[in-house]
Each structure stands twice: as C-alpha cells, then as structure tokens.
Design brief:
It is a single chain. This protein is of the alpha/beta class. It has two domains: 150 residues, Medium-chain alcohol dehydrogenases, catalytic domain (Quinone Oxidoreductase, Chain A, domain 1, Alpha-Beta Complex), CATH 3.90.180; 158 residues, Rossmann fold (3-Layer(aba) Sandwich), CATH 3.40.50. The chain has ten helices and 15 strands. Helix 6 links the parallel strand 11 and strand 12.
C-alpha cells in the first residue's frame, strides 16, 4: 500500500509518499480500499508538531476515509466484501488501504457519492456533538458559527437549517455569496469587522443561543460575551495558534495568554455554559459515536446533509493540499485521493 508519511515536523513539503505492506484484518476488522481521505486541521497541526495527541514521528495521520471493503474478519457480520463505507480512523487515514474495526465503518446508502463520503466523519460528527448531542439546537435558536466556510462550519450550517435555527457566520468576504446561497442568514467578514459588535447589532443586543468557536485565544472571550441567557459556547480548536506553515511558538504563547478563564461563579451568575469538544478523545465512547454517525449517514442518504467538497488532490499532491487549506482558499472539505 501507499501512505503519506510525516517523517518529522515541518512545512507541507516534509510529507513523503512511501510504500508499506498491506495490512491484514483481525477477527473484528475490515480492510478498505480507500477512495478518498479527508484532511482536517488536526492533521495540519500534527504535521507542524503542534498536536499533542498525534503519534510520535515518523507517523501517518488521518482521521477519516471512504472506500470499498475488500476483506472482512471472521467475526464481522454487518459488512461484506464490496460494501461501500465511510470510516473513522484513529490515525493512518492517509493510506490507500486501511484496516479498521468494523464498528468504525458505516455502510453507505445507494446514491451517496463514494469520494464525497470521506467528508462526512470528522466534520459532521464534530458539529453533531455540539449542536445536537450537547446543544439541542432547534427552531427559534440563533447560532454563531465561526469559519462558516470550512468543513465543520458548513456541516453546522446544514444541521442548523435542518433544525430551523438562524445562523450568523464569520468568513472572508469572498465566501459570503455561496454561504448565503446555502442558507446563511447573516454573514460577517471577520477581516473587516469586529464580530462581537456585529452579533450585537444583528441580534439587537440580545446575543446568540449557541456559539461554535475553533479560533481560540481572545475569540473565546468575545464569543462568550455574544451569548444570551442560557447560551452555550462550544470550544473545539485553536486555529489562531498556528497561523503559518510551520510551528510558531510565539503565536501559540500569545494565544494562550489571551485565552479566557471561565470561573464557575461567573458561569452561574451569567446563566451561560462553556463546553469543550475533542473528537479524538472519544474513542472509548465508540458505540455512542457510531450511533450518531449512523444517523448522519442516514440523513446524507436522504439529501438532508450534503458534504461540500471544495477540491481533491492526488496523494502525490499532499503538500499542495495542505498549502491550499492553510491559505484559507477552501470552501468546504479538501480530500486526498489515491
């Protein structure tokens, strides 16, 4: 099999395409011939040496893929050779052959594009955890979504519109027309305006019921101040800590210094909540995660949720793909295809 190896921390060009023996499935595993692998910001952070959960170098990263089952273990009952699946992977996703426990692979309904399905696991599960499992988003809610043109942002937008919520999204100005076409109610250009002031203006000072923030640092504090009574803030990343192509310890330290501390007494008095979400720390809750992912795939099959794929890059173009994302050119998911 071919894999994209991270031999050490560095810029996108550090990645190497290498050959390795095809893995063999265990009794409860399936082997998948990969059609596409999703790229997430955690992958980029890992490549830069800024992701604490990544395996030590040299390593192969990747949390999600789609493909066709080509072998099954003796104990596997629900999947068969030839089934099209989307799979959650605990690293190793940047490979053209994967072995994963059968519980981590979901059979795709007919009509759901196999390549596009690689954009389902991470972003939709993250958005679902925040909005549905924890946030109980519904009609009448107003939701602030940062980086609305990214993978999680677009997943959150689709879930919110399905549930009847009003969405305020931050994104660069060039992405606003497409976001409005997809149902975004209010767009804020974070480069040209202060999002906190804009949220207060849009809501006539009332604030939002839910805020999703993966920017980090000062943005966490501002998003908290955007909340109304009973408001919920979900923190799921710190993209501002990694502004360049390589590790920037000064930027990370600056972000840490500006990160707010949420005191329990203030939370009680404000009637607000703050939740942290890290999908990579929930592997011990795999049955629960699988139940959520089954529902996501079902809704995707019905056309309620549609993964937005901005671009696909061949495995040989992995460095270009990382550059593309870090330049904030993507609208939706970027995939690697063997």
């Amino acid at each position: 099999m071919r894999q994209i190896l991270f031999p050490k921390a560095g810029p996108p060009e550090v990645m190497q395409l290498v050959e390795a023996p095809d893995p063999e499935p265990g009794p409860g595993d399936v082997r998948v011939r990969v059609a596409a692998a999703g790229i997430n910001f955690a992958d980029i952070s890992a490549r830069m040496g800024m992701y604490q959960d990544a395996p030590p170098f040299p390593c192969v990263i990747g949390y999600e893929a789609s493909g066709t089952v080509e072998a099954v273990g003796a104990e596997v009952k629900d999947l068969a050779v030839g089934d099209r699946v989307a799979a959650m992977t605990r690293f190793g996703g940047y490979s053209d052959v994967l072995v994963v426990p059968a519980l981590q692979a979901v059979k795709l309904p007919e009509g759901l594009d196999l390549v596009a399905a690689a954009g389902l696991p991470v972003t939709y599960l993250t958005a679902w955890l925040m909005l549905m499992h924890l946030g109980h988003v519904g009609e009448g809610d107003t939701v602030l979504v940062h980086s609305a043109g990214g993978g999680v942002g677009l997943s959150a937008l689709q879930i919110c519109k399905w549930r009847g919520a009003t969405v305020i999204g931050t994104a660069s100005g060039g992405k606003h027309p497409r976001l409005r076409e997809m149902g975004l109610d209010h767009a804020i250009d974070y480069r040209a305006a202060d999002f906190e002031a804009e949220v207060k203006r849009i809501t006539d000072g009332a604030g939002v019921d839910i805020a999703l923030d993966a920017v980090g640092g000062e943005s966490f504090a501002k998003s908290y101040r955007c909340l109304t009574d009973f408001g919920r803030l979900y923190l799921f990343g710190v993209s501002s800590f990694n502004p360049g192509l390589t590790r920037n310890l000064f930027a990370a330290l600056k972000g840490i210094v500006k990160t707010p501390r949420f005191h329990p007494f203030n939370l009680m008095n404000d009637n607000k909540g703050v939740h942290g979400v890290n999908l990579g720390h929930l592997w011990h809750r795999l049955p629960a995660m699988r139940g959520m992912f089954d529902r996501i795939v079902e809704l995707a099959g019905e056309g309620v949720l549609t993964p937005v794929i901005d671009a696909t890059f061949d495995f040989t173009q992995a460095a270009e793909a990382h550059h593309y994302i870090q330049a904030r050119r993507n609208f939706g998911k970027v995939l690697l295809t063997p």
